[in-house]
Amino acid sequence: ICGTASGGLEALDMIDLFMPGIVITDISMSDMDGLELLEIINQTYPTVKVILISGYKEFEYAQKAVALNAFSYLTKPINSQQLLDKVLEAKMEIEKRISEVKMNDVIRKKLRENILVVKDSFFTTLIEGRIRNRAEIGSRSEFLEIDLNFNQFLVCVISFEAGGAVKNKNFYDISFYKAAIMSKIEEKTGDMY
User: Fold this and answer.
1) Is the pLDDT of residue 161 over 70?
2) CB–CB of 65/73 below 8 Å?
3) Which of 10, 23, 35, 96 is deepest in the core (most CB within 10 A)?
């Protein structure tokens, strides 16, 4: 528990200060109700999980809480185990989201490291005619940040001998060598194609 507040405005100040993962609030407060607080949290801190507690069992409050994306809506009287269960559920969701973000970062890093190889593979697939669906070609090119919105194209198929300086290089060095050749070709033909 990083802090407690006696009203919604104080809660907003504390949320801004501590950036908590979970906020537990009552619907009834003196300066604003919990639903208003939830709405502001959603707009300003969309990753924060909000658990609403209310003495009202009316369906309208629960419905509005769901519409405002409350993590949970508990009606009084509540016991500590019930609240703890909801807090742990929210914690698990937060940890899952953090794990997904980390995984996506790892994937993005690996993609950046291997982008030349992936682009090379995409162009090879195009040249060989293994994908012809325009939507699939469009989505792959967009993902690889390759602009294919041109009226005309020039296809260059270049073969080089793996001799001399390239002979004892590994797969990645050869890929960078190919990228250097590609860069020169783009430099010469980029204005037209």
Assistant:
1) no
2) yes
3) 23
Express each pLDDT in 77-110 by its tens digit: 889 999 999 999 999 999 999 888 888 888 888 8
- Closest to 85 measured CA to CA, from 70, 100, 74: 74
Whole-angstrom distance, CA of residue 183 vs CA of residue 187: 6
Q: How far apart are the first and last CA of the chain?
A: 60
Calpha distance 17→112 (Å, rounded): 35
Would you tell me how many other CB atoms lie within 10 Å of the CB of residue 166? Answer: 13
CB atoms within 10 A of CB 12: 19
- If phi over 0 gives left and psi between -120 and 50 gives alpha, with beta otherwise, what is residue 49? beta
Coil, strand, or helix at residue 177?
Answer: helix
144 touches 114 (CB < 8 A): no
**Model confidence, pTM:** 0.56
- Contact in structure between 157 and 124 (CB atoms under 8 Å): no
DSSP 3-state of 77: coil
Please name the residues in contact with 140: beta carbons below 8 A apart, sequence gap of 6 or more. 122, 131
